[in-house]
Amino acid sequence: MSSLVGVIMGSTSDWDTMKKACEVLEELGIPYEKKVVSAHRTPDLMFEYAETAAARGLKAIIAGAGGAAHLPGMVAAKTVLPVIGVPVQSKALNGLDSLLSIVQMPGGIPVATVAIGAAGATNAGLLAAQLIGAFDPQVQARVAARRERITQEVLDNGELPL
Ligand code: RP5
């Protein structure tokens, strides 16, 4: 089956974070592709990727970047697919720079921004799955089952040692 979600990141150094999104998509059986696409190092590739994404069958794009993180916003400007932005934790400013670069999109071109770092990448995978699940009952059932499992784990392990 062709990919439904595109997971892109500005650098190979983002992979440790962005693999969390891929792990979720794999767990939920959602076909995805992953690629390094840099807004400043490979700008032409970024435009081509964004411009062709919908025609290639993608339903959502997860874009992760750190520092002056313009990748998600630039990609969102060139596609009408939903774009989920993951602020990668930067060394200098702990990802606050990434977060503010991604989240503060002017009205008109949305980027759904998640938390900084690994939790954000996990949630980006889940959010993409939920978007697809809105039109695919099997995917939605798998997302619901994952929630139930997490709830049960908390209920089973909720007793604290005294
Ligand atoms: C951004 O610059 C990337 O998304 C990465 O988070 C950051 C640093 O990239 P490298 O210098 O590690 O390649 O483009």
TrEMBL record:
Enzyme Commission (EC) number: 5.4.99.18
InterPro entries assigned: PurE_ClassI, PurE_dom, PurE_prokaryotes
PurE domain location: 3-154
SMART domains from the UniProt entry: AIRC
The UniProt record lists the keyword Isomerase: yes
Keywords annotated in UniProt: Isomerase, Lyase, Purine biosynthesis
Enzyme class, first EC level, given as a word: isomerase
Metabolic or biological pathway, per its Swiss-Prot or TrEMBL entry: Purine metabolism; IMP biosynthesis via de novo pathway; 5-amino-1-(5-phospho-D-ribosyl)imidazole-4-carboxylate from 5-amino-1-(5-phospho-D-ribosyl)imidazole (N5-CAIR route): step 2/2
Record-listed substrate binding positions: 11, 14, 41
Pfam families: AIRC (PF00731)
Physiological role: Catalyzes the conversion of N5-carboxyaminoimidazole ribonucleotide (N5-CAIR) to 4-carboxy-5-aminoimidazole ribonucleotide (CAIR).
Family: Belongs to the AIR carboxylase family. Class I subfamily.
Designated name of the protein: N5-carboxyaminoimidazole ribonucleotide mutase
